[in-house]
Amino acid sequence: MEQAGPASVEAPAVVQPEVAGPVAAAGGAPARRGSLGPVGLVLAGCVSVQFGGALAVSLMPRAGAVGVVTLRLVAAAVVLLVVCRPKLRGHSRADWGTVVAFGVVMGGMNMIFYQAAARIPLGVAVTFEVLGPLALSVIASRRAVNALWAALALGGVFLLGGGGGGFGDLDPVGVACALGAGALWAAYIVFSARTGRRFPQADGLALAMAVAAVLSLPLGIAEAGSKLAVPSTIGLGAAVAVLSSVLPYTLELLALRRLPASTFAIMMSLEPAIAALAGFLVLSQSLSLVEALAIALVIAASMGAVRTQVGRGAPEALSEK
Asked: What is the DSSP string of 114-155?
């Protein structure tokens, strides 16, 4: 499911963490002019991720945020282990340390993000979360122009905070969780690249997902208990795993065989807007004009940061998720 050789951490893409794992560009090969095939695949992946997130939020009354994360991670781990069949032998202690750290970060990132999604609108949660990889991209770039993108992002945060008035009507715990998930997303990018260098194909991803699933299982059982065994809940949890992990990851992999990594990263920057649409259609979560403008500013900052990295002549380094 994964192409070998993950992207460099120098220029992480600003993309949605719900995707199952790291995606490496296929040599940064340019897409065919006039072809909307790979673009359509990426957009379909984005829609799948965000509507999977919206479905997860709707499932929370049944199993709680932690229970939903557990169902999703366990189902995704089973699928990846069956498909990838990773080898357990022949890896060093450092290899295992890296993949375990990757799994811990992956599990923590999803746990905290779902806590945020349970408290604040999905589009707003993704917007705050995107600040993590955006900050990593700006810091890694070390170019003065990135101060502009940082200022745009901060402007968006200022507007989401009601003009600096303590985030207005937003739940402060939800905001803190979204920001925490963003920090873990940045760490996810780093460990994703390290894991990809140490394990072939998607072996490292499958093993890390298994680690995340094992760690989350006791927490999910403690919160949801027997609710996790209800057939309808299991079915919905599996649907969340497919929509949020398996399907978008597969679509993005296919797209990256014909789409430049830089274009892929820019399209991924649209995730907050798609998340807001999913929240509106599935969860009836509406946004004010100010909140919509704030999300637009963060999207513009994300795209600008990616474009700056392309200007450095390193488009292959922009496909990390």
From this structure: HHHHTTS-HHHHHHHHHHHHHHHHHHHH--TTHHHHHHHHHH
Instruction: Give me the sign of the Cα torsion angle 133, 263, 140, 166.
Output: negative
* Angstrom distance (rounded) from CA 22 to CA 25: 10
Pair of tokens at residue 8: 């460099």
The DSSP output letter for 243 is I
Judged on CB neighbours under 10 Å (0-12, 13-18, 19+), 61 is exposed
Q: State the Cα–Cα distance between residues 315 and 69, nearest whole angstrom.
A: 33
201: DSSP letter: T
- Rounded distance between C-alpha atoms, residue 13 and residue 165, angstroms: 31
| Integer angstrom CA distances of residue 297 from 66, 125, 286, 293 | 31, 15, 18, 6
Q: What is the pLDDT of residue 32?
A: 45
The SS3 call for residue 283 is helix
Torsional sign, CA 168, 171, 177, 182: negative
Q: To 10 degrees, what angle do helices 93-117 and 172-198 make? A: 160
What is the pTM assigned to this prediction? 0.76
Tens-digit pLDDT profile for residues 168-214: 678 889 999 999 999 998 888 788 888 888 888 788 888 999 999 99
- The tokens of 193 are what? 């690249």
The Cα–Cα gap between 31 and 105 comes to: 33
Does pLDDT of 297 surpass 50? Answer: yes
Say which DSSP state 23 is in: -
Q: How far apart are CA 98 and CA 88, in angstroms?
A: 14
Rounded CA gap, 207 and 195, in Å? 10
Q: How far is CA 150 from CA 63, 69, 244, 294, 304, in A?
A: 38, 31, 28, 13, 10
Is 15 a residue whose pLDDT tops 90?
no
